[in-house]
Design brief:
The chain is mostly beta strands and 126 residues long. The protein is 0% helix and 47% strand. A hairpin with a 4-residue loop joins strand 7 and strand 8. The radius of gyration is 13 Å and the shape is globular.
Length: 126
């Protein structure tokens, strides 16, 4: 069972940037599609972005395209989320997750994620 640990969250002013990281415990990291999700207070968890095993294909929540970029470094077993032009409505706990059964799930749509990290808080002040 892969363990995921997020880092890089914090407090930032509107218009600023943050880069989140997600470190995986296993070398099988390269076998999984990976995704980022977020949950704001009082709201349901929502899909942010996903990336296929090789990094050659990505998917984003439509409203975040152009501001957020997902990437991965399989040699370092690490997933990233670069967030630019942050807005107060981006405030949430951000989670990374691993999708094991990529071939039979809608990984690009944020479905079928099996393993989750504990989350990292991102707060954007106005």
């Amino acid at each position: 069972q892969v363990q995921l640990v997020e880092s890089g969250g914090g407090l930032v002013q509107a218009g600023g940037s943050l880069r989140l990281s997600c470190a995986a415990s296993e070398r099988t990291f390269s076998s999984y599609a990976m995704g980022w999700f977020r949950q704001a207070p009082g709201k349901e968890r929502e899909f942010v972005a996903a990336i296929i095993q090789s990094g050659g294909s990505t998917s984003y929540q439509d409203s975040l395209k152009g501001r957020f970029t997902i990437s991965r470094d399989n040699a370092k077993n690490t997933l990233y989320l670069q967030m630019n032009s942050l807005k107060p409505e981006d405030t949430a706990v951000y989670y990374c997750a691993a999708n094991v059964f990529t071939w039979r799930t809608d990984w690009a749509g944020g479905k079928g994620y099996d393993y989750w990290g504990q989350g990292t808080q991102v707060t954007v002040s106005s």
